[in-house]
Recover the amino acids of this structure.
């Protein structure tokens, strides 16, 4: 299978910890034995801290995004360091470069690409562009809920839903200030237009990703 794994910065690099990167590297190497693997890393707390300071200094939002992208690429570099020879040596800066790099038959690890989006969208477009069979979004929540579980006690976790239902949930969530959508809207739109099979799961333990690849997913499956 061709697989894209999006690892939220909030799980991979909440605090900078070599063990977390080692644990991820070991699970990803296992997956890459039988699959073509692309990984997109998020920015996490460091990205939010840098963006916060840039904003305080009067930087415009696009400049803040560009700073965020640099941080996602730094996390990509740390994961590449943890993967050693199993990874392509540099984070590709765009989709075409990622596709070319995959000819190396190594794990491709990249961060953000362009302002105005998050790495959720990058992983969805990458999945579309390289014809992935599966997109896994490893995040800080354990799946997609009917509404934001941090704001609503009645929120229920869904095992399965269609891309259309995902978009409806995101639109509802985004109307509440400060709420966190499980996947960003642009990513959900791309998942819908190309009908990319997507699994949203908790990335706390990277073994969850390995299990999902082997058909034992614990999160939410999005498919038509
Ligand atoms: P993340 O994808 O990590 O954003 O990118 P996030 O969803 O806020 O983070 P986590 O992983 O859930 O903690 C970090 C920031 O980098 C910029 C955005 O500003 C984003 O908030 N970014 C990232 C872009 O502008 N474009 C990209 O393609 C990727």
């Amino acid at each position: 299978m061709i697989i894209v794994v999006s690892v939220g910065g909030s799980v991979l690099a909440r605090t900078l910890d070599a063990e977390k990167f080692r644990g991820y590297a070991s699970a990803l190497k296992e997956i890459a034995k039988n699959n073509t693997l692309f990984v997109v890393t998020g920015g996490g707390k460091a990205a939010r801290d840098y963006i916060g300071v840039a904003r305080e200094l009067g930087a415009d939002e696009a400049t803040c995004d560009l700073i965020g992208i640099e941080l996602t690429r730094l996390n990509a570099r740390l994961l590449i360091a943890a993967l050693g020879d199993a990874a392509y040596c540099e984070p590709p800066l765009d989709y075409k470069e990622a596709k070319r790099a995959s000819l190396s038959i190594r794990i491709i690890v990249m961060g953000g690409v362009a302002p105005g989006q998050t790495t959720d969208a990058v992983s969805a477009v990458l999945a579309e562009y390289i014809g992935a069979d599966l997109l896994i979004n490893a995040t800080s929540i354990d799946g997609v809920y009917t509404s934001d579980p941090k704001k609503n006690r009645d929120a229920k976790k869904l095992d399965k839903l269609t891309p259309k239902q995902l978009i409806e949930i995101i639109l509802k969530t985004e109307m509440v200030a400060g709420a966190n959508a499980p996947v960003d809207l642009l990513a959900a739109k791309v998942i819908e237009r190309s009908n990319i099979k997507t699994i949203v799961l908790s990335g706390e333990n990277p073994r969850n990703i390995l299990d999902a690849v082997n058909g034992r997913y614990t999160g939410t499956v999005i498919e038509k």
Summary: The longest strand covers residues 2-7. The first helix runs from residue 9 to 12. The chain has a mean pLDDT of 94. The pocket of uridine 5'-triphosphate is lined by residues 8-10, 42-44, 47, 51, 64-65, 68-69, 72, 112-115, 117-119, 122 (CB under 6 Å).
